[in-house]
Amino acid sequence: MSLPLIKSLQDCTDFSETVVPFIPQLYDLPQRIFDSISDPDALKYIYLSTNPLISAFAFCLFTVPIFIIAAEVNRNYSQVDRFWSLLPTFYNLHFALYAHAKGLPSQRLDILAIVSILWSTRLTHNYWRKGGYSIGSEDYRWAILRKYINAPLFFVLNVLFIALAQSILLLSVTTPAYLLVLAANKTQGTSELSDIVFPVALVSAVFLAYWADLQQWNFHTAKQIYRESPEHKVLPGYHQEDLDRGFNCTGLWSLSRHPNFLAEQSFWVLFYAYGASITRNYSNWTLVGPASYLFLFQASTWLTELISASKYVEYKEYQNRVGKFLPNITGGLPGDFSVKRSL
């Protein structure tokens, strides 16, 4: 049996009944797959007879040693980063495919898969145009951390956090989709208001992130042209003082220091809320995913801003004026420093 017996929607969120009994399937799964590697029918049977969360977790663990070895061999610790925008959608597609293969109502899972593809497309495109997939490209923050952490400890960091914890995190944010698999038979394909509200909100979060990314990309493109052109050309729509400042504090970036991060975090919080709404349990175990995501963004944003504050003279003033994620409605002047242009 690959799925638990569900008597009510609330049962879908019972970790002791919907996850724990299936953990033993993980132990012999690699051997079963290896023994059937040349038999497509046997592999299909294994796929359908294995709990979808367990098979997803098995794949997650499979990627960990690959990330570790690739990072150590190349001395490049952005291996997980290259798959950050892809793995959550892979897991969401897996849950949708499983529901289809089992003949379960899959409308909600199909919608989440489509929205997840949009999320992946936006994030992958932004990572690509910034050179993330170029050979040798690495997140600058890893290089800075290596200056303060010796090689043996950084290896431990690579194993436990960069490769293992981050891989599990990318699966955990998609676990609300597992709840929807479990709830499929109980809802029998019926629709409710949340089936409109949450997909629209999720798409809106993707659009907000795309808009913020575009503003940031255009600003830094204008800054590069301004600094590299002999005549210090200022593109239309920009002011010389903004380009001289070095960091973007206009548009969405005048309301939030990290509007793209706000949208990114909101996406996975909404993803969780959708599953919680359908199962009628707003404090279930899948909250671990978005909660961990928020914690990671708090830590990475702290490091990013520490670097920015040391690089740009006016960044601390920007921090005082503009909220980190949410607009600072009680603060002073907006982050675009427009008051200086009126003097």
Kindly list the characteristics that best describe this protein:
343 residues; mainly alpha
Write the layout of secondary structure elements.
Blueprint: H1 15-18, H2 25-35, H3 40-49, H4 52-74, H5 87-102, H6 107-129, H7 140-148, H8 151-172, H9 175-187, H10 194-228, H11 240-245, H12 259-279, H13 288-311, H14 315-321
Helix pairs in contact: 2-4, 4-8, 5-6, 5-9, 6-10, 8-13, 9-12, 10-12, 12-13
Look at the structure and give the mean pLDDT: 93
What percent of residues adopt helix (DSSP H or I)? 55-70%
Radius of gyration: 23 Å
Summed up, the helix count is: 14
Q: What distance lies between the first and last C-alpha atoms, to the nearest angstrom?
A: 73 Å
Q: Could you describe the largest sheet, including whether it forms a barrel? A: none
- Large-scale geometry: globular
Give a brief description.
This protein has 343 residues and is an all-alpha fold. The protein is built from 14 helices and no strands.
Task: Please characterize this protein's 3D structure.
The chain has 343 residues and is mainly alpha-helical. 65% of the residues lie in helices and 0% in strands. It contains 14 helices and no strands. It has helices at residues 15-18, 25-35, 40-49, 52-74, 87-102, 107-129, 140-148, 151-172, 175-187, 194-228, 240-245, 259-279, 288-311, 315-321. The longest helix has 35 residues, at 194-228. The protein is globular. The model has no long low-confidence stretch (mean pLDDT 93).
